[in-house]
Design goal:
This protein is an alpha+beta fold and 149 residues long. It has helices spanning 3-24, 101-107; strands spanning 31-36, 39-40, 45-49, 57-60, 66-68, 70-71, 74-75, 80-87, 89-90, 116-117, 132-135, 145-147. The protein is elongated, with a radius of gyration of 23 Å.
């Protein structure tokens, strides 16, 4: 009979560990497409910002504008309310030819030009973004982000 309490505690410990793992991985898939003026936006960064108790979920859009959110290194987002932020910049590209020594000397103390925002500024600011979503467990969480000026 003394074996039963030991078995109980082993089973209880395994249940707690397994339960803890499933709670911490309570992420649900979140997908969608980003469009601007009706066209897909490839290479945009999408961030779902939740409350202070919720980790942000992020993605970079594919060539067709589609995205699939990740939280840290796992697919999905925690259930909850989010504001979506979408950004895309165009950093000035260097020409194929290296600059001459004289040109390089002129540019050495000049900061590089700032990247150009390719989407309206309201989408890059959590306080101004009109993109609000509720991620729900057990439901399809597909949110198309249709951006406009």
């Amino acid at each position: 009979m003394p074996c039963h309490p030991v078995k109980f505690w082993i089973v209880a410990a395994v249940a707690l560990v397994a339960g803890g793992c499933s709670r911490s991985s309570g992420l649900v898939p979140v997908t969608g497409t980003v469009t601007y003026k009706g066209q897909p936006v490839p290479g945009a960064t999408v961030v779902f910002m939740g409350s202070e108790n919720t980790r942000p979920a992020t993605a970079v859009t594919q060539a067709d504008g589609s995205y699939s959110l990740m939280t840290l290194d796992a697919k999905g987002a925690m259930p909850g309310s989010y504001t979506a932020i979408v950004t895309k910049t165009d950093a000035p590209s260097a020409s194929g030819e290296p600059p001459s020594m004289e040109e390089a000397a002129k540019q050495v103390n000049r900061p590089p030009p700032p990247p150009k925002d390719l989407l309206p500024a309201k989408y890059s600011d959590a306080a101004r973004s009109p993109l609000k979503f509720e991620v729900k467990a057990g439901q399809k969480n597909h949110f198309d982000l249709q951006l406009a000026d």
